[in-house]
Specification:
By secondary structure, the chain is mainly β. The chain folds into three domains: 205 residues, Sandwich (Immunoglobulin-like), CATH 2.60.40; 91 residues, Immunoglobulin-like (Sandwich); 85 residues, Immunoglobulin-like, CATH 2.60.40.10. Helices cover 7% and strands 41% of the residues. The protein has four helices and 34 strands. Strand 7 and strand 8 form a beta hairpin. The longest helix is centred in the last third of the chain and has 13 residues. The radius of gyration is 36 Å and the shape is elongated. 36% of the residues are buried.
C-alpha cells in the first residue's frame, strides 16, 4: 500500500523494536523521542545479556501513539557481522503471509498486547518474511503492512504490538558471535509510515541509532544453565504463598530438577518443574513478617548442578479481625467450666498472635482458648468478658457475656440416681449403642469433658469405677 507523502500529520508516535526471550514478561523502559522509531534488544529479566543459539527467541515490535491509527507500514531486519545464522520458527497460534495458520507462522500476538485480539484490531494478513541482502541464507527481514479493523488501533502508551520468532545458529561451543536488529532497511524518507483516520500520514523518525547488537553463544555443556529469573523477585508476600520461577536451558535437553540449598525463613518451600522453568512457592510462617526471606536454589541433572541463584521474598502483614466463638456461654456454679475459641480472621498466618483478658473472669492460653471455672458464690450472676488479640501490626478486641446457673448434680451421675457406679456405665452404653434415653443432664454424663456424649465417656467411667481411674470431669455438652 502506498500513501500520499504530500500530506503530513504532526502526531506523536513512538515505535520500538525489541528482542525478547520467549515467554519474557513485557517491559519497555527505553526512552525514545516523539515521532520517531528505534531499535533495541530487550532482555529484561534475563540472567545475563546473551542470545542463545538453538533457542526460540522473539523480536518484539513496540508502539506508542497519541493518535488513533488507521494503517501502518513497518519492518525490521536481522543481520550478523560474523556469521550467525537463524531460521524463523512457526508457532502453533502464529500468523504467516495470508493470516493465521498460513505459511510460515512465525509472527505472534500474545494476550494483553496492543494488537490483542489481532483479528478484531487489525488486518494481519499482509506480512512477509523476505530476503533483502540476497546472501542465500534465511530471509533476513520481517515486513508488516496493514489496515485497521473495527475502529483502528486506539491511542496508547508504549507496549508490545506484535512479534516474530526466530532461532539462531552457526555458533560453536566457546564462540561468541553477534546478532543485530536493524531498522535502517526502512529509510527515513517516509517508508516507516502510519496514517490516522483522516488518512493523514505520520512519519516517525529513526532515533538513537538504527541498530543494536547482542552476543550469541552456544549453551555450555552439560549441567542446566540459568538464563532468566522471575521478574517477580522481591515481591511482597502478605503471609500467603508466593510464586517465583527461574528459566533454565540444558545443552543436551536432559531433564533437570530443582534443589533447595538454604532458606532463611520459618516457612515452607515447594519446588516444581514447568517446562524449562523451576517454580518455587514460599509460604511464610509465624515470625516471617517484616523480614526479607532469602531462598537459595539450583538446578541439577545427571551431569551436575547450576550455579546457585537466589529468590528474595519480602513478607508483610495486615491487621487482624476477631470474633468470639464460645462453645457455651452458660456456666454451672462449682460444676461446669466455660471454654471457647477466639475466632481470629487474620490473613497473617506468618505473624505471632498473643491474647489477653482485658476485663471479666477467666484466662486465654497461647492458642486462643478461653476458660473459666465459676464457684458456688458465682451462681445467679452474669459476667461481661472483654478479650484482646494482638499481632505484629494491630490489636483487635471482642466481648461476650456469661450467665452462671446453680449447680445441677454429681459429675458422672448419668442416670441421676445420686451416685456414680456401674449403673451410669450401663446407661451410657444403652444410649450410645441401643438408642437408649438421652441423659437428662448431659453435662453430668460428659465425664471426659470433650463436649460430646459418646463411647469415650463410657470407657472413661469404666476406668474410674473399676480401675481407680481419674474422677469424672465437668462436662461441656451445652
Amino acid at each position: 500500500m502506498r500513501f500520499d507523502e504530500t500530506r503530513f500529520c504532526a502526531a506523536k508516535v513512538t515505535l520500538i523494536i525489541g528482542l525478547l526471550s520467549l515467554g519474557l514478561a513485557i517491559m519497555a523502559t527505553q526512552s525514545v523521542a516523539d515521532n520517531s522509531v528505534g531499535a533495541g534488544f530487550q532482555m529484561e529479566g534475563t540472567y545475563d545479556d546473551t542470545i542463545w543459539a538453538g533457542v526460540d527467541h522473539l523480536v518484539g515490535i513496540y508502539i506508542q501513539n497519541t493518535d488513533k491509527l488507521r494503517s501502518m507500514s513497518l519492518g525490521f531486519k536481522l543481520f550478523s557481522p560474523d556469521g550467525v545464522e537463524w531460521t524463523w520458527v512457526s508457532q502453533a497460534e502464529g500468523y504467516g503471509p495470508g493470516g493465521k495458520y498460513t505459511g510460515l507462522q512465525a509472527a505472534t500476538v500474545f494476550s494483553g498486547w496492543r494488537m490483542d485480539p489481532a483479528e478484531e484490531v487489525w488486518d494481519v494478513s499482509d506480512l512477509q518474511f523476505i530476503e533483502q541482502d540476497m546472501d542465500g541464507l534465511s530471509p533476513d527481514s520481517f515486513c508488516f503492512y496493514g489496515m485497521a479493523e473495527n475502529g483502528g488501533l486506539e491511542i496508547g502508551g508504549i507496549d508490545l504490538l506484535m512479534g516474530a520468532h526466530f532461532m539462531p545458529g552457526g555458533v560453536a561451543e566457546g564462540e561468541v558471535k553477534t546478532l543485530c536488529v536493524d531498522t535502517a532497511l526502512v529509510p527515513s524518507d517516509g517508508e516507516w509510515l502510519f496514517t490516522d483516520f483522516l488518512e493523514q500520514p505520520i512519519y516517525p523518525r529513526i532515533s538513537g541509532g538504527s541498530e543494536q547488537c547482542k552476543p550469541v553463544k552456544l549453551l555450555p555443556c552439560c549441567e542446566p544453565y540459568l538464563i532468566k529469573l522471575s521478574t517477580y523477585t522481591r515481591e511482597t508476600a502478605v503471609c500467603r504463598t508466593e510464586y517465583f520461577y527461574a528459566t533454565f536451558l540444558d545443552y543436551e535437553e536432559e531433564p533437570f530438577y530443582g534443589e533447595l540449598i538454604s532458606c532463611t525463613g520459618n516457612g515452607t518451600v515447594e519446588l516444581g518443574i514447568n517446562g524449562n522453568n523451576i517454580t518455587m512457592h514460599y509460604t511464610p510462617a509465624q515470625g516471617d513478617a517484616g523480614e526479607i526471606i532469602i531462598v537459595t536454589l539450583r538446578a541439577c541433572n545427571s551431569s551436575g548442578c547450576s550455579e546457585p541463584y537466589i529468590h528474595r521474598v519480602s513478607v508483610t502483614g495486615n491487621a487482624p479481625t476477631m470474633d468470639v466463638g464460645l462453645l457455651n456461654n452458660t456456666a454451672i456454679a462449682d460444676n461446669l467450666f466455660v471454654k471457647g475459641d477466639l475466632v481470629i480472621e487474620d490473613p497473617n498466618s506468618c505473624e505471632i498472635l498473643t491474647y489477653a483478658v482485658l476485663s471479666g473472669p477467666g484466662e486465654i492460653d497461647a492458642e486462643g482458648l478461653y476458660t473459666w471455672v465459676p464457684t458456688v458464690g458465682d451462681q445467679g450472676t452474669n459476667h461481661f468478658v472483654e478479650v484482646m488479640a494482638t499481632d505484629e501490626h494491630d490489636t483487635v478486641t471482642g466481648s461476650f457475656e456469661i450467665e452462671v446457673l446453680p449447680g445441677e448434680g454429681l459429675d458422672g451421675d448419668a442416670n441421676l440416681d445420686g451416685s456414680v457406679n456401674v449403673g451410669d456405665i450401663v446407661f451410657l452404653i444403652n444410649y450410645v449403642f441401643k438408642n437408649g434415653a438421652f441423659p437428662q443432664v448431659p453435662n453430668l454424663a460428659d465425664v471426659n469433658s470433650d463436649c460430646a456424649l459418646n463411647i469415650g465417656d463410657a470407657v472413661y467411667l469404666i476406668g474410674y469405677v473399676f480401675k481407680h481411674g481419674p474422677a469424672p470431669w465437668i462436662g461441656c455438652v451445652y
